[in-house]
Here is the input.
Amino acid sequence: MSIDLAQFHRTFFEECFEGVDLMERDLLRMGADARGETVHAVFRAAHSIKGGAATFGFAAIASFTHHMETLLDQMRSGMRPISDPAVDLLLRATDALRGLLVSARDGVPLDTVRVVEAQTALEAFLGQAPAATASPAAPAVSAEQVFLIKFAPAPELFRSGNDPLLILRELAALGDLETRMSLDGLPSFAECEAESCYLAWSLRLRTAHSRADVQDVFAWVEGACELDISVEAAALQSPAPTVVVAASQAARGGDHAPADGGSIRVGTEKIDALMNLVGELIITQAMLAQLAGNLDPVLNEKLLAGLSQLDRNTRLLQEAVMSTRMLPIDSVFSRFPRLIRDLAAKLGKQARLTTVGEATELDKSVIEKISDPLNHLVRNSLDHGIELPDARRSAGKDAVGTVTLKAAHQGDDIIVEVCDDGHGLDRRRILAKAGEQGIACSESMSDAEVWQLIFAPGFSTAEQVTDVSGRGVGMDVVKKNIAALGGSVELHSIAGRGSRTVIRLPLTLAILDGMSVGVSGEIFILPLSSVIESLQPQAEQVKRMAHQGTVVRVRNEYLPLVDLREWFGLSGKSHPLHQAIAVIVESDGRKLALQVDELVGQQQVVIKSLEANYRRIRGVSGATILGDGRVSLILDVGAIVRQFSQVQAA
Amino acid sequence: MQETDSVVRPAARRPVSARAQRGKALVLGAELGIDDVAGLKRQLGQVLEEPARVVLDAAEVRRIHTAALQLFCLFCRDRRAEGREVEFARPSPAMLSAATLLGASTLLQLARAPA
Here is the structure.
């Protein structure tokens, strides 16, 4: 029977990359503490990748992973100590393995030098002649069998003095055990009896032991459980795997795959489609709510009650769909232990990473986009912040520097911080370098203003360009990327004590808190995060300045005024300003007053891409659909402030 | 300011963010054998409905029976189903090893538990 294995490849590669990430993370932990559990976890990940690769016919991956597995096996059995050289070697092998996987998945050329180097190093470390290890994994495991065991204890099993944990521990001693716990038919916590067993397990045991040995483990509980032991079709020897094998491969994943614990993998495009539909539903619901506003509440009581329920349910549905897109920030943070380790070694520094709040969840699209800025910031902390061990000791600090990554929710924002306990920012040096590079600055600037100079394009204080930093394409890009996400960056620093970069981001990019304003009968949305205040100025507060256009005096501060009607070339005549409204907005620390006709309201809007549906327009970041079905543009305050400054400077 | 004519949604704070700031800690005993599960169930029952995040400190756990782990699974599942947070702090090697063997570490989210 021929089966199209390609349909399982995607899952296989996803699981492999998860396995590689897990191996890398645990290898880094293994260096710190030599606990047996960690090496077991790394071994299991390598073992799963090898098994899957052999099943799907990726011989090179299976063969390569086999060497890693052999070394890990020796380490977990105590034959070989968990030493730094071994961990380094395995980390290098993990990189090579990732390359092999990418090459197999995308069909891109393989960095064969790196793979061969890693494989040779592994073979040399294992003390094997290359010729002897050229044969792939299959012969080593050909004597093994895979048992599939269904074990469902009777409720009274605990009371008879038995503990499934001991049984599973005994099974694990026979070979490689993969466990899936079944939660089917479990009562609620309140209803359960603490001493009754409700759990059941599906086990997969790869062992060289016989079926009788496996059966023996359950000898004490026979009669007090449902037990089914079968032999899995031999995955590794069979040239054409059966459906059962492939399916179990796809569904399997041990403890590490998110598939465990009653979850399923869903493509992001499906979630995006769902999100879009919810957006449409919110708009429809808003339209209904607006129409209902004109109805007599007495005559239409039931209809209005129904609409209010619809409103509630739509809100709940929106929150539920949003929550499916939320991921813990750990998926970004977990990349940094490796980066810190490698960079610190390259720079001759010592550093440790601590993370706080890695379970904080945020939208997947935001997660994907903050990875690069964080990377820059962590690199900067290590390169510019953390001192060399001797300098740290002489400053009375621990020779090992600390870089801390923190994440927390604050209202509708998420705050991500990158802190280090290095020497902090050097005011004098920043000013000197800024002067050299022709960036406007003066000695009288406040500390906060001096730190802002770092964000100027092309700014770098590094004495020499390294591949770590110093090319001056860092902080301005960081700031631009974060601003593109609707977020902001702040820098704090104490000389000799360290620096702290605080990034504030919206929880999601799909919905925005907006203020709707009316100009010439059109409604525009201003992001609430950039609005400071709105006021109706007195005639004497408005002045015309030569070469600077109109300005408004707000509490002894003169702010440039932009008439949105002129800006967008709308028809109609502008009201005199003292009859109109000025909305004060801020971006990049610069304030601007926007002249509008009226303030309409405050609302959450579903952002629709204007670029995808029409084309890019300067000063507009997107569009939304209003309750009455009209399209309203969302203003890009940052772009308006920037453009206005350029016009003025010209 | 007049009421909006394009009511989509008033800007509402997410309740989770306030909740995440607080937490209620429960220190688990060293012995979680079959004789201890009735007491453990009472202890967990008291915080089942707790609106703030519940943190189970498992640093001291030396011996654990499947029955205790089953209680943790039900407790975590029920709380999360109601949108209430629960997490394990400093799980001991005994706790980690038992959860891994029984296939419960994902459900209990022990991988992300602070060490």
